[in-house]
Write a structure and sequence with these properties.
Distance between the termini: 110 Å
Largest sheet: 8 strands, antiparallel
Number of domains: 2
Number of strands: 16
Strand content: 25-35%
Helix content: 10-25%
Length: about 375
């Protein structure tokens, strides 16, 4: 008998291959779409995490504005001169050489692309552990300092310090008998005994003689000096939110720390109690004039600080269209009226409509002004 053999015709083979190719093509397109969406959502998540971490540092510094600042007794000190690489003259916000330091203020539109620059002065805005430590200094029965437990909470012998004589209405910078307003903690007994008992010893810097009796941090938006330092996924025309702390051993800042990338704008406003009893609250967007807003006025009037930051969320998405070419960086109406400005994305950001834009809002009540 002959065995019957059956096979697949060429037509059937072509049909099967066609179906297979359709399935593969559809699957690959679905995979590409899912991958693109995954990358977009991943970048949005990363952006949000960066925003939380960086802006939390900013919120903390605003809350601590004024911490450890002397109100009186200041002798000649230095602040900023002409720091290298700075485009917008941050030395205009100095209080040196003899004025009491203003705890917090900003210059309206004084930065890159008309952004605001926020200046915070306090002992603990520096990014070192020494500025987080303090001790009591007693005069009687003998000159001595207290000892904290655990020992790590105490100042070190080599830490550079100041001493503040204080009561309910004053914070006076105490001079050292060897001259100047500062010394190391190992020489704490040499500060003048004409002071409150106890006085407070503040650590300012771990290893550098002090040129000013406080620390200062500036928050500002700017494009990096080296263009390649701006991440490739940032829209052209955006910058970086930096925190820069003044160096005690030079005329300028320590290396600025990037806090948030792909930032288009930052606007700052202050809510002030102008008559001192809480009944008349007004907003101000520029309190940088030292004659109109000296240190004591800022301490007594500023009750709230609001910071508005417009930043890119995620990366470019060709399938997305952002609807508003002039988002408000601030607010219109509400409890304090109009604040900030409308930011013109079309005039400042390349291909702005294919990016998502997010407005970060910080509302902070400083707790160390008084």
């Amino acid at each position: 008998m002959k065995n019957r053999q059956s096979g697949v015709t060429l037509l059937e083979l072509l049909i099967v291959m066609g179906i297979f190719m359709i399935v593969i093509t559809a699957s690959s397109q679905m995979f590409v779409s899912l991958l693109s969406e995954f990358k977009q959502q991943s970048k949005i998540t990363v952006t949000n995490i960066e925003g939380i971490l960086g802006l939390e540092m900013m919120r903390r510094d605003i809350e601590n504005a004024g911490y450890g600042l002397p109100w009186d007794g200041l002798t000649n000190y230095q602040e900023l001169t002409n720091p290298v690489g700075e485009l917008y003259n941050p030395a205009q916000f100095n209080d040196a050489p003899t004025n009491p330091p203003r705890a917090i203020f900003s210059g309206n539109g004084t930065g890159w692309q008309g952004t605001d620059r926020l200046v915070v002065k306090a002992i603990n805005v520096a990014m070192n552990s020494t500025s987080e430590h303090w001790n009591f200094l007693y005069t009687s029965p003998a000159v001595s300092t207290n000892v904290w437990t655990p020992a790590a909470d105490n100042l070190l012998a080599t830490d550079h310090i100041i001493v503040i004589s204080q009561d309910a209405n004053s914070r006076i910078l105490v001079p050292h008998t060897l001259g100047g307003f500062s010394n190391t903690f190992s020489n704490v007994a040499g500060f003048s005994t004409n002071r409150s008992d106890p006085s407070v010893v503040y650590g300012v810097d771990p290893n550098t003689p002090l040129k000013m009796p406080f620390n200062r941090a500036d928050y500002y938006v700017q494009q990096p000096v080296t263009a390649s330092d701006l991440p490739r996924y940032c829209a052209a025309g955006t910058g970086i939110l930096y925190k820069a702390v003044i160096a005690h051993n030079s005329t300028g800042f320590l290396t600025p720390q990037p806090l948030l990338e792909c930032v288009a704008d930052m606007q700052v406003a202050f809510v002030n109690d102008v008559n001192g009893d809480g009944t008349v609250m007004q907003k101000f967007e520029d309190i940088s004039n030292i004659v109109a807003y000296p240190a004591d006025t800022i301490r007594s009037q500023v009750k709230e600080v609001r910071v508005y930051i417009l930043a890119q969320e995620g990366q470019r998405d060709r399938n997305y269209t952002y609807p508003n070419p002039t988002p408000r960086v601030g607010q219109i109406g509400g409890d304090i009226g109009d604040v900030g400005r409308n930011f013109d994305l079309n005039a400042n950001i390349t291909d702005w409509s294919h990016y998502r834009w997010k407005l970060y809002t910080l509302v902070v009540k400083p707790s160390n002004l008084q």
